[in-house]
Amino acid sequence: MSELQIRELYAGYGDITVLNNLEMDVEKGEVVALVGANGAGKSTLLRTISGLITPNKGQITFMGRRIDHMMPHQVVEMGFIQVPEGKQLFPEMTVEENLMVGSFNKRARKDRERSLKEAYEFFPILEERRQQKARSLSGGEQQMLALGRALMGQPKLLAMDEPSLGLAPIIVERLFNTIQNIRKTGLTILIIEQNVQQALEMADRGYVIENGHIVLEGKGSELLQNEHLKTHYLGI
Ligand SMILES: Nc1ncnc2c1ncn2[C@@H]1O[C@H](COP(=O)(O)OP(=O)(O)OP(=O)(O)O)[C@@H](O)[C@H]1O
Ligand SMILES: [Mg+2]
After folding, report:
1. What is the mean pLDDT of residues 175-193?
2. pLDDT above 90: residue 12
3. Do 125 and 232 have their domain in common?
4. Is the pLDDT of residue 134 over 80?
5. Do residues 49 and 100 both lie within one domain?
6. Closest residue CA from atom 16 of ligand 1
C-alpha cells in the first residue's frame, strides 16, 4: 500500500463540496507535485489530510492507518507535516522560537537539538538570523523558516502549499535546490505549485486537479508533454 492513499474523497466547507471523488497515491520516498488553477481545491485537500476538515465521504490512509477522522495533532504525531499556505509564522517570535514550535509534537520533542542543527545546516541564513524576529525576514527567508519549522517536526511526509509563491525567480531556484537536498534524506514530499514547469521537472509524478477532482496523472516528464497541460497550465 502507498504511504498516502486517498480514495473516493469528498470534502468541503459546510454545504459546499470542494473535493469531488478525489483519488491519489503517494509512495514512500516519492516527490509528488499537485498542480491546478486557483480555487481548484489544492489547499482544501491538504487541510483535509491534516485533519482540519473532516471529509463527508471517502478514505485517507497514511502509513497503513486511516487518518480521515483523526484530530490534527494526531496526524502531525504520525508524521504528516505541512508547510501551510501563507506560511503562518509567528511574526513577533524569533527565528529560533519559530523553529522550536515545529518540534512540539511528542515524537519530535526529544530530538529538538539535533533537528535544530539539521535545520541550520539546510538553511545557514536562519542560523545567522536566529535571534531576529520572523517578521523582519525577507519573503524568501520566511519561506525557508516555514520549511525549517516543518522539518523540526520530523516529518515522514512533508507537504508544501505553494512554497514558491511571491518569490523572485532566483530565490525559487534556490528553494527548489533545497527541496532536492531534502528529498535525498528519503523524505516523502507532496508539493503544491503554481510553478507548474519547475514542479513537474522536479517531481517523480504529478497530479492535475480541476474542480476538486484529479483529471490527469503521470510521471512529471510525461505530464509536461501532455497537450491539455501544455495548453491550460503552461500556455504553450
Ligand atoms: N473557509 C472556506 N469557506 C468556504 N469556502 C472556502 C473556504 N476556503 C476555500 N473555500 C472555497 O473552496 C474552493 C477551493 O479553495 P482552495 O483554497 O482549496 O483552492 P486552491 O486550489 O488552494 O487555490 P489557490 O491556488 O488560489 O490557493 C474555492 O472555491 C474556495 O472559494
Ligand atoms: Mg491554495
Report:
1. 93
2. yes
3. no
4. yes
5. no
6. 41
Instruction: Supply the DSSP symbol for 132.
Output: S
Q: What is the reported pLDDT for 235? A: 85
182-202 burial, b if ≥16 CB within 10 A, otherwise e?
A: bbeeebbbbbbbebbebbbeb
Domain of residue 131: give its range. 87-155
Residue 232 belongs to a domain with what CATH number?
3.40.50.300
Is residue 84 lining ligand 1, measured as CB closer than 6 Å?
Answer: no
| pTM of the complete model beyond 0.85 | yes
CA distances from 23 to 1, 45, 59, 165, 206 (A): 14, 11, 9, 26, 13
| Dist. CA 170 → ligand 1 center (Å) | 29
Same domain? 93 vs 146: yes
Whose CA is closest to atom 27 on ligand 1? 38
Which ligand lies nearest the alpha carbon of 44? 1
Instruction: Identify which ligand lies nearest to the alpha carbon of 38.
Output: 1
Q: Tell whether 161 and 137 lie within a shared domain.
A: no
Strand partners, 200: none
Given the CA of residue 44, which atom of ligand 1 is nearest to it? 18
Based on the domain organization, do 130 and 111 belong to the same domain?
A: yes
